[in-house]
Amino acid sequence: MAAVKIPFLDLQAQNGPLREDTLAAIARVCDSQRFIMGPEIDALEDELAALLGIDHAIAVSSGTDAVLLALMALGITAGDEVVTTTYSFFATAGAIVRLGARPVLVDIDPVTFNIDPEHLAASITPRTRAILPVHLFGLSADLDPIMQHADRHGIPVVEDAAQAIGATYKSRPVGAIGTFGCFSFFPSKNLGAFGDAGLLTTSDARLAKRARLLRTHGMEPKYYHHLVGGNFRMDALQAAVLRVKAPRLAGWTRARRENASRYRTLFREAGLDGPVTLPVEPPDRLHIYHQFVIRTADRDGLKRHLDELGIGNEIYYPVPFHRQSCFADLGYAHGSFPHAERAAAESLAIPIYAELSIAQQETVVRAIGGFFENREISDFRFQISD
Question: Quick one: CA dihedral 106, 108, 109, 112, positive or negative?
Fold first, then answer.
């Protein structure tokens, strides 16, 4: 098969058609000279709260800072424990450690990649001050049992929804079920800014007020500080860009879901359902496919094959938290979380962005099929529920 360039993500295809509207929004901010806070931030917060069906939306500087701010608003400090997954982007655990607290790590459900609620229950101790599930790759974690465990112990739940804007659990939007929801608008996200930006959500008016205060150094009014917070403000320029893009999110989500459905058909027709395992979508959840992550035993070989053909792909995530050198003092050994370790060794994300064409998808699947030609399928077949 001849090399063909298919990018893993094509931001030009998404942002190019919005050029004039985006430049007009940026010009509006430049004309106002209101670059920090102000009307663009206020309008974005109102619009996103309505879009997500959430009472309070607080624009912040990044998805990482959304998680950090949520934990700060809850008073998480040195000596506290926060239960979370071992398989996610680094910021999930990093925010906990930055406050001097200890991340108590939990293995994943091998089918969904999300935190296993039963393992979570066994990790709660008298020092647990929060539970931090991640809605990984755009699929909600199984929130009912998580919320039941949290309610039983009186522990708040902070949803890391950085990859899951628009996803739902039993028809409820993620980020509106726990005490806080945390979203990222990093440029590669389904709703991406032109730089770092994020959102914190809550239905608790008291916590919303506290988070807003912490967002600006605990200051109200100017130069009068009630709490030691930080600078977690979103730039008005990013808010203006997001206001242009947010109304398109539903359409982009539909396109991603259509692409995911088409991939399933193409993989099945190509007879690849043996050596390749595709993402699942439980019937009680709406997956927004931030990533389309497949699994195969020879993941590294498949990645080299796709790289040679010019087909974009990414590994999310090659090293779980418990195997990261900076978390060695947590005391977890190799093999502590076998499902996460296996996912880290077998998972590969392929292109799923909304603008991906049918022909491009066919090329991706044909290339993957080419990798398995003249190989024993039994060499690649595995049972992820082992």
Answer: positive
Separation of alpha carbons 307 and 368, rounded Å = 11
By the 8 A CB rule, do 364 and 272 touch?
Answer: no
Q: What percent of the chain stands above pLDDT 70?
A: 96
Q: Residue 383 — pLDDT band, cuts 50, 70, 90?
A: very low
Instruction: Give the integer Cα–Cα distance in Å for 281 and 264.
Output: 12
Does the domain at 12-107+115-247 match CATH 1.10.3720.10? Answer given as no
Among candidate residues 61, 307, 331, the one with its CA nearest the CA of residue 198? 61
Domain 249-379 CATH superfamily: Aspartate Aminotransferase, domain 1 (3.90.1150.10)
Q: Tell me how long the chain is.
A: 386
**SS3 category, 349:** strand
Nearest to 291 by CA among 112, 107, 85, 92: 112
CATH 3.90.1150.10 intervals, the chain: 249-379
Which tokens is 165 given? 């804007």
- Nearest Cα neighbor of 81 from 139, 156, 13 is 156
Tens-place pLDDT, residues 136-179: 999 999 999 999 999 999 999 999 999 999 999 999 999 999 99
How do residues 2-39 score in pLDDT, each as one tens digit? Answer: 677 999 999 999 999 999 999 999 999 999 999 999 99
Residue ranges matching CATH 3.40.640.10 in the chain: 12-107+115-247
Residues in contact with 70: Cβ distance below 8 Å, sequence separation at least 6, in sequence order: 158, 179, 180, 182, 200, 211
Q: What's the burial of 151, exposed, middle or buried (CB within 10 Å: 0-12/13-18/19+)?
A: exposed
pTM for the predicted model, two decimal places? 0.94
Alpha-carbon distance of 92 to 100, in angstroms, equals 14
Q: What is the DSSP string of 249-303?
A: HHHHHHHHHHHHHHHHHHHHHTT-TTT-BPPP--TTEE---S-EEEE-TTHHHHH
Which CA distances in Å does 259 have to 256, 270, 352, 353, 358?
Answer: 5, 16, 6, 8, 8
**Rounded distance between C-alpha atoms, residue 181 and residue 47, angstroms:** 16
Q: In 3-state terms, what secondary structure has residue 104?
A: strand
Please report, for residues 123, 133, 183, the alpha-carbon distance to residue 67 in angstroms, rounded to integers and kept in the order given: 20, 11, 8
Determine how β-strand 158-160 pairs with β-strand 180-184: parallel
